[in-house]
């Protein structure tokens, strides 16, 4: 649905996007991550046709957005960063304004309104001025205008920025529902936003892509893959583990009654579980837990964007 090839964009001496390529298929919900200043907003403006790249091209469902911008943009619903709508206008006036821009007329207009209003839950604020709404409700209105023409592709730039935790949860739920029937590209630097709603993560830094894959694929890039957590009940646990040459370090040792919990750093590529089970059997330990520690997207994000 979205294909970007070798996109580059500079503002004076600042290189915002550098030879960036990616492809997003139908039905994918992609979290577009990066620290502030990574090039996310610039990329989204290029993808939606609001900014021309210095080089490269974008196709929306096979349509080149520079050569045929209106045809390509008809396939896109776009919620830009900051949701810049007119504060003095009523919600109903905003939706009518965008329906006019989209040239939605007649019976299709009522159908479009019914779909957008019911999908985003803005019926209760339909006749209220946009400027008087909370940030969470404003984001709902922004999504409603993006959905009026029932696009196959939804592109959202920082949709939860500035929202409180309850508002974030509401918007995440809304995005999850919308993503079940369309292709979604969602940019954010708030890492917890992507885990509940996205099935793919793409990370950029300094305008270049540094990671791209399913949540599991990106998570498994962590250095934590060389660690094991172990909880056993028995005697001389640490002393016996120190004899295993493949174990490079033993950390986070916690003892409670007869149980010992700890974290092992092992040689890359080594699978120690069978050896540890044999060691437990030999020493008559009871194994309560053995496995890899839970992955932490925030740590991985830090490792990747700091160049570690």
User: What does the radius of gyration come to?
Assistant: 25 Å
Q: What is the name of the CATH architecture of the largest domain?
A: 3-Layer(aba) Sandwich
Which CATH class of the largest domain is shown? Alpha Beta
Classify the beta-strand content into a percent band: 25-35%
Structural class by helix and strand composition: alpha/beta
Strand order of the largest sheet: 6-7-8-3-9-10
Mean pLDDT: 88
Strand tally: 14
Overall morphology: elongated
Output the CATH homologous superfamily of the largest domain.
P-loop containing nucleotide triphosphate hydrolases
What's the helix count?
Answer: 11
Distance between the termini: 33 Å
Largest sheet: 6 strands, mixed
Number of spatially distinct domains: 2
Q: Would you identify the regions where 5 or more consecutive residues have pLDDT less than 50?
A: none
Helix content: 25-40%
CATH topology of the largest domain: Rossmann fold
Q: Give the ordered list of helices and strands.
A: EEEHEEHEHHHEHEHEEHEHEEHEH
Q: What would your notes on this structure say?
A:
The protein has 308 residues and is α/β, with parallel strands linked by helices. It folds into two domains: 219 residues, 3-Layer(aba) Sandwich (Rossmann fold); 68 residues, 2-Layer Sandwich (Alpha-Beta Plaits). It is built from eleven helices and 14 strands. The strands form three sheets. It has a six-stranded mixed sheet with strand order 6-7-8-3-9-10, with helices on both faces. The chain has a four-stranded antiparallel sheet with strand order 2-1-4-5. A four-stranded antiparallel sheet has the order 12-13-11-14. Helix 6 links the parallel strand 7 and strand 8. The longest helix is centred in the middle third of the chain and has 15 residues.
